[in-house]
Amino acid sequence: MKLFYSRNPNPRLAVAVARHLGAGVEYEFASPFSTGQAERFRPLNPNLSLPILVWSGESLWEADAIACRLSRAVGSDFWRTGDNEPEMIRWLSWGKENFVRACDVVQFERGTKLRYGLGSTDPRMVEEGLNNFRTAAAILDAALSDRRWLAGDRLSYADFRMATFLPFNDVAGLPLGDYPSVCRWYGRLEEIDAWRDPFKGLDAPELSPVPER
Q1: Which residue intervals of the chain are DSSP H helices?
Q2: In 17, 35, 105, 114, which residue has its Cα 20 to 30 A from 9's Cα atom?
Q3: What pLDDT, on the 0 to 100 scale, is given for residue 213?
Q4: Is 9 exposed, middle or buried (0-12, 13-18, 19+ CB in 10 A)?
Q5: Rounded to an integer, what distance in angstroms lies between the CA atom of residue 18 and that of residue 175?
Q6: What is the pLDDT of residues 127-166, one digit of tens each?
Q7: Which of these, 64, 70, 71, 52, lies nearest to 89 by C-alpha position?
Q8: In the β-sheet with 2-5, what is the strand arrangement from edge to edge?
Q9: Mean residue pLDDT across the chain
């Protein structure tokens, strides 16, 4: 299997999953939107977005699907299949619609737009994202006040997915410090080598710096 990736949030997530699982994949840095690359990648993903996992003439895109496929490939319950599966899916669904989405909005405005020249930061969108973040973070903080991980007593993909944008918080500037249980939970994630530095040893050019606002 080969995993096409970049340093952006969702590809980073997929690489972290693959390395945490010790999945036997080959890693290739890719840029499908670069000049001359679209025709190579469109048959693999019509959206041209990363990550993309390929094997035996097949391809799979979207980080959640790739995490499921890799977990099954190595026989891991990182992607839950037992009694904790509904709990994991609950957090995946809620997170992507609430906590993760709010992080994404702020990160896009303060980071992605400026990094890739997509326009200036929209203060109204930042404020909306921060308001939604505060609402979601309060719920997440309460849930994590009496547990170490989101699905059962062990790490699962729900934890990785919920934290997708937090490695980029130096740019996003989300007020994580206001939520002590979330901070403790994320500190535990940062102790995991594959999460803290998923690109270690890989040919992964750094993201372009974000111009000062």
Answers
A1: 9-21, 38-41, 63-74, 85-97, 99-107, 113-115, 123-143, 157-162, 169-172, 180-190, 193-196
A2: 35
A3: 64
A4: buried
A5: 29
A6: 999 999 999 999 999 999 999 999 989 999 999 999 999 9
A7: 64
A8: 26-29, 2-5, 52-55, 58-61
A9: 96
